[in-house]
User: Which sequence fits this backbone?
């Protein structure tokens, strides 16, 4: 597997996994970024969600989702150091402000991964 890849096998898609994540997961928030995570015994799955409440137009929601996925893809080692090797996680952007640059998301991502 490529170090910086984001293969389909890492994407959180199954409804039962997402439901379990919301039911049993733990929330962590830093700035405009929020995650819900749950330790898992078998594999790592990552999902991304952006609220329609904040971004009415799909083009803006998709932009933020692309930035979140790219931040995860390039910095997944930070997340693995924080949460272990196998987990399910969802990333949320919780601000109506469109991020200025990928560096804004990376800043909150790194801060969130350092938070205990």
Assistant:
């Amino acid at each position: 597997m490529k170090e910086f890849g984001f293969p389909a096998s890492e994407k959180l898609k199954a409804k039962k996994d997402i439901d379990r994540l919301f039911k049993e997961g733990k929330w962590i928030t830093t700035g405009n970024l929020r995650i819900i995570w749950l330790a898992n015994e078998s594999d790592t799955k990552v999902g991304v969600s952006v609220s329609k409440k904040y971004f009415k137009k799909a083009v803006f929601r998709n932009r933020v989702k692309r930035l979140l996925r790219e931040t995860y893809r390039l910095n997944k080692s930070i997340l693995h150091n924080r949460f272990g090797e196998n987990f399910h996680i969802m990333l949320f952007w919780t601000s109506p402000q469109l991020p200025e640059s990928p560096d804004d998301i990376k800043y909150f991502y790194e801060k969130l991964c350092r938070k205990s």
